[in-house]
Amino acid sequence: MIIDLKGRKVGRLLVLRLLGLGPPMWACACDCGKEIIVRSDLLTRQRVRSCGCLKSDKARERVRTHGQSGTRTHRAWTAMLSRCRNPNRWDFKYYGGRGIRVCDRWLRFENFLADMGEAPRGLEIDRANNSGNYEPTNCRWVTRNTNATNTRSVLLVAWQGITDSVSGWSRRLKIDRHELAEKIRSGIKPEELFPGRQAR
What we know:
With about 200 residues, the protein is α+β, with helices and mostly antiparallel strands. It folds into 3 domains: about 10-65, no CATH class; about 70-150, no CATH class; about 155-195, no CATH class. The protein has helices at about 40-45, 55-65, 70-85, 110-115, 145-150, 165-175, 175-185, 190-195; strands at about 10, 15-20, 25-30, 35-40, 125, 140-145, 155-160, 160-165.
């Protein structure tokens, strides 16, 4: 026995008419304007509720949820996650590689935004306790210089009559601070690292 579905609304679909012989098939009009053919049992069990636009709209809505993609705050969030979760990043060993994690709450951008607010211009995220995780009680927005000097231990290096932190020297000589710190800790002297260069 064929159940008469004509005129019934299933999700976004309005059942229009029964088609041909064999397994009951119904022509349906979707709210978006498309017409599709659906098996009777899929309609009665509500397994099909649109022409496919419902799934697409839900996917787009998930992307648009926070409306922040591409902003400074969203870039800071994605970089934070990558440092802790992507072993292919050059700096992973300084973060995820040494046990630094992002708290479960901040795995969703909306929660990160609610806790930290939008990233102020010119500031970046920093962990007050450099050995602690990325979590609300340990993070703040700071200047790049403050962030650079907040290392596990600030190394002071004297060279050509100037004493400065590794971060300071990395800015002066335009060298990555992590790489410079590793070399200094390994015992290499500044004059060996920068033969012929002048401190500025």
